[in-house]
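Folding Task

Wanted — backbone structure
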Amino acid sequence: MAGRIAFASLGCAKALVDSEQLIARLRALGYELVPEYEEADLAIVNTCGFINPAIEESLEEIGLALEKTPKVVATGCLGARPEVIRKAHPEVLAVTGPAQFEAVLEAVTRALPPDRDPKTALVPPRVRLTPRHYAYLKIAEGCDNKCSFCIIPKLRGPQVSRPLDEVVREAEGLVATGTRELIIIAQDTLAYGRERGERGALLRLIDRLAELGVWLRLLYVYPYPEVEALVEKMAEGKLLPYLDVPLQHASPRILRAMRRPGDAERYLERIRAWRRAVPDLTLRSVFIVGFPGETEEDFALLLDFLKEAELDRVGAFTYSEVEGAAANALPGRVPEEVKEERYHRLMQLQAEISSRRMRRWVGKRVPVIVDAPGEDGAWIARSPGDAPGVDGVVYLEGEGIEVGERYLAQVTDADTYDLFARVLRPLPWKAALGAK
């Protein structure tokens, strides 16, 4: 055995896919992956560098690894700013940027010689860190947007879309090994193929993937006008009726400062049109409170928008400066205590909205996919309106339930974020998307 490696993957699903690909390469070289730092000869920490809390978490994790492991390699988004990591932890073995697999392997093999020749080792596409029945399918790297609060383009570079046939082959391989839900991700999913001048590339990809007969879910959809075409695919039953559109704010003035499109009225018009086309649509979004220059009037506009839009799922975070972000130079810094107070007001309002939205499902029949056994005889499942790890769940009761299978269920109750249901019957894969 070449050596034992512990691996920590922080941040978003896009980083998780990077971790899966890197672990596959490590295993192909003969390394053993162990769950605890204390058991390892070397540790790898795949970091996040999106906002200050994520940076702090990454640095803490590197510090924890250094306390318990003789050698540590830091990689990922924060690795694109090596000076930050080396200032806090000068003793790290190596620092590499996101998806720099060869640089990571070079550092690892130098410290722990492999059992197999890296030039001849057969490498599987990736090792799954999710349950077998769902997988993230990353279709592009990088981002071309210029949002003033974000440095992802500096960390991951401009957008580079994967060839369509390559993505389809990976999806076919995942489905062949038991995946029944493909979650399509990129930094800007809707821009897939745009840097190559390929208009409609995402729609063509969806048509190809829909032939596989599994659930298709989209995350990270920038609010371009092309969203309407995605809603049409949902109405056709090719995509789950789930739309994750990070709107960030509703005040036109703040959105301009963020370098984001739209305003509350235009967003509301589009949301109404989306729901007319797909009545069971689940809408998810995320918002920033306390952005530089945000006044109480701006924040009130955001709250009024949420009351009117009645989004199903909402995440929020307080604005924090990230080194290199253009928004750092904006005037009107909001005090931390004001940010926190606004955050709690927003989340309290959204909890009330979520409770109302969840109650509308009571008495309805919904398809669900089972993730895990739960407690007290209930199983943990998800409806089309629940993305793993970020949304609520369905607490499912019944006989003969199996993880990874899909069922038609009757919703019996709801709370603020979760549903309670009982199994009616198993669902064939082809019928699961739109069955009622």
Summary: Residues 4-111 form a domain with the Rossmann fold fold (CATH 3.40.50.12160). The longest helix spans residues 336-359.
